[in-house]
């Protein structure tokens, strides 16, 4: 058992395997008390293993591990799910998105797997250089504090391992699609809502779902959402940055 501090929350992690403690090493917390606890059972790990057989990438990853490593990895997945499901009641949720920081503002990019989120944020790095810093490569936590939405780094960050233990106000959210020509347009609220719900883990219990929907609704009314059609060129990063950084989000 150990503690982490993620998205401002102190979380007690009740683990059986060493993988998750190593994964969370940059986020470990030595103080007293905890906001909530996250754990999982051996049965949940077994069920996660069965579910993983339908995902070729995860299945191949597990095949490269011994049994102890497999169970540690899957325990990490289950415990993060436990954390995610406890966040909405605390004004937070996990979003499947690659997120960067530019000049003190966070920009999140989400898309179907294989579309090229990581490639696109690498183009921002090429375009803006050291002004671009990673927040999280895959699963940041978004938290509302005093009406402002912030993106937080987490240890669960994709195969590249891109993450920083930071908190950055969220300036824009971009849905990325492949296209021959680069273009970007602001999304209306209803379309943005429909798209973002596919990128969020929604609790099955009624109150958890309601809290999540309310949070997302407030975020979409605060944070500008965009649809980017892009090819693999620096121009894609240029037009995205110029559109998303222009102006101010509504108060």
Written overview of the protein:
- The model is unreliable at 247-251 (pLDDT under 50).
- The chain has two domains: 2-86, no CATH class; 92-245, Phosphoenolpyruvate Carboxykinase, domain 3 (Alpha-Beta Complex).
- It has eight helices and twelve strands.
- It is globular.
- The strands form two sheets. Strands 4, 5, 6, 7, 8, 9, 10, 11 and 12 form a nine-stranded mixed sheet that branches. A three-stranded mixed sheet has the order 1-2-3, with helices on one face.
- Strand 5 and strand 6 form a beta hairpin.
- By secondary structure, it is of the alpha+beta class.
Question: What's the quick description here?
Answer:
This protein is of the alpha+beta class and 251 residues long.
Helices and strands, with pairings:
Blueprint: E1 2-6, E2 9-14, H1 19-23, E3 36-39, H2 42-52, H3 56-63, H4 67-86, E4 92-94, E5 98-102, E6 105-110, H5 117-128, E7 132-136, E8 141-145, E9 148-152, E10 167-178, E11 183-186, H6 189-196, H7 206-220, E12 224-230, H8 234-245
Parallel strand pairs: 2-3, 6-10, 10-12
Antiparallel strand pairs: 1-2, 4-8, 5-6, 5-7, 8-9, 9-10, 11-12
Helix pairs in contact: 2-4, 5-8
> What letter string, H or E per element, gives the SSE order?
EEHEHHHEEEHEEEEEHHEH
CATH architecture of the largest domain: Alpha-Beta Complex
Distance between the termini: 42 Å
Number of strands: 12
């Amino acid at each position: 058992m150990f503690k982490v501090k993620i998205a401002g929350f102190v979380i007690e992690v009740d683990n059986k395997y060493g993988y998750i403690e190593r994964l969370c090493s940059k986020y470990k917390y030595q103080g007293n008390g905890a906001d909530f606890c996250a754990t999982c059972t051996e049965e949940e790990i077994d069920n996660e293993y069965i579910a993983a057989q339908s995902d070729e990438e995860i299945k191949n990853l597990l095949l490269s591990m011994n049994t102890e490593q497999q169970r540690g990895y899957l325990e990490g997945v289950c415990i993060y799910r436990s954390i995610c499901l406890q966040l909405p009641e605390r004004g937070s949720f996990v979003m499947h998105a690659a997120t960067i920081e530019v000049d003190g503002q966070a920009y999140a990019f989400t898309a179907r797997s294989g579309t090229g989120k990581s490639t696109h944020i690498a183009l921002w790095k090429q375009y803006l250089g050291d002004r671009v810093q990673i927040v999280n490569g895959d699963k940041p936590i978004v938290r509302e504090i005093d009406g402002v939405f912030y993106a937080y780094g987490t240890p669960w960050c994709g195969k590249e391992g891109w993450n920083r233990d930071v908190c950055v106000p969220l300036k824009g959210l971009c849905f990325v699609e492949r296209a021959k020509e680069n273009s970007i347009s602001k999304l209306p609220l209803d379309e943005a809502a429909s798209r973002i719900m596919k990128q969020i883990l929604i609790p099955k219990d009624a109150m958890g779902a309601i809290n999540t929907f309310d949070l997302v609704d407030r975020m979409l009314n605060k944070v500008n959402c965009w649809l980017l059609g892009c090819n693999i060129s620096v121009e894609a990063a240029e037009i995205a940055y110029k559109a998303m950084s222009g102006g101010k989000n509504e108060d």
